[in-house]
């Protein structure tokens, strides 16, 4: 279609608008990008872009209520500024109003399908050989009821930050066995697979969360299996309080990761015990130096000094200072070292359109023996 050919989705404001829509960002955020794309108003060209790249490709089953809210606000925005609304948008809104009546009556699906687009700046390391691959798109089925007992299936802000950290330093994770505690929707594991980790082990203590995680891995074309299979991503049920030392030592990871796992004081002794066992498992001298490049950058030396052995990276928001201090005390009691990397390294912003994600509130710590 000629109209489609005229649309340049590579323009930053357009790319951000489409990415924000697919991530189901608040409708006001998407409309603000639409205004920016249109030079101050939602022009017919912008509406055409929304129609072709957002509305026509949306999934009513997983995004229905969001689509209806978005179209309602979009139409009000255009009409209030004296603009003309494309017929397709009016017709689609009417269609949604009719088709979603049963959905509203039954309170709808508690899960939605989001697409998180990591937009790579030109200088991103590790992607020079693929100049056309400037975007990583991750589909995630997640919960809309974070505060109603479905926390494991929600996307937590620190998982975004940890994913950006992984994509900022791909050489750090390539060819390494990586183990995540409290993997939730699986976003971090998908990014680890993207940077060619030799083995990715995702764990969670909740069976419903594990089931949803496996769905997300399959949505992103990753094979799943248990820890002994030959598949690229391994999903294991690991309640921290009952995990045995023998089981933990069997994983033998090079790198341990965790996003927003420091929130419940009653769980912290078990979490620190798990980290201590994973980190203190004996390593040979060859293991300690394996994969270390003499050309390692200063940032990488700070993050992962040569011959250091296993290391854990924990990203989280300090929501309660007493809980955070308790965690620090437990780490010290376990004879582990902890370093705050937050202000010492530069993590690239791969999610510039994600206004609901406040990366400035997140801290990144390194833990090692």
Automatic annotation (TrEMBL):
Pfam families per UniProt: Methyltransf_16
Entry protein name: FAM86 N-terminal domain-containing protein
Naturally occurring in which organism (per UniProt): Rehmannia glutinosa (Chinese foxglove)
